[in-house]
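Pipeline run #58 for the internal structure catalog. This entry was flagged by the ingest filter as a single-chain record with no existing model, so it goes straight to prediction. Upstream metadata was stripped on purpose; only the residue string is passed forward. Reviewer on rotation: M.T. Logging verbosity set to normal.
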Amino acid sequence: MPSSVSPIGRRLRQARQDRRLSIEESAWRTRIRPDLLRALEREQFQALEHAGFVRRHLSSYARFLGLDPAEIVEDYARCHEPPDASPIEHLDRRRRQAKRPPRAKWLIAAAASGALLVAASVVGVLGGGERDVSLSALSSAGPRLGPAAASRLAPLRVTVRVLATSATHLSVMVDSRTAFEGDLAEGQGRSFAGRSAIEVVAGNGAAVRLTVNGTSMGAPGKAGSVYRARFGPTDPR
């Protein structure tokens, strides 16, 4: 394993520094331990023990920094994995890189139509052929959901509104992707929406007002202190 920092490590470190992020803040936002991030930037891959863990963390860290994760992982495999890697690792890599074939929607539609035709035939036989059952009647015969039940089955989403009462630096991640990184002037606001989680980091916790999923949280942080929070579809509790 090379002792000097090679191109992979330099690219990771440079991308992090370009975004003005520390190792600790990057670790908090990627959920990867700081010592492992340092090992990736120094290419001390033996600290992660298994090549599969190295590829996984490299991919996550590169995606967080705005780099091409596939390119970073490919460079690692070419430069650091032995040519006689185990067949299991090769198969695992091929499985993860293989694209899932698109679903044949026409087959699903044909199967549904066939099921309706069979149901219509059965009803006709049981009724002695005297009852006229249309496909439209069968398709509408199922139970209908009321508005309350339909809203419960609707996909959950999370929304966050940030309003700056004074100038501050703001960083927002939506569903593990950077949605905003920059400074907000006094009176400026930003709105964000996601499916699973929204992470907010404000340089001055008292300089922002948050509204989470329609509920006002006021100024959640302290003056002069960095405020960090992660919100999901069910917040605030």
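catalog note: The first strand starts at residue 158 and ends at 164.
catalog note: The domain at 7-97 is CATH 1.10.260.40 (434 Repressor (Amino-terminal Domain)).
status: ready for reviewer M.T.
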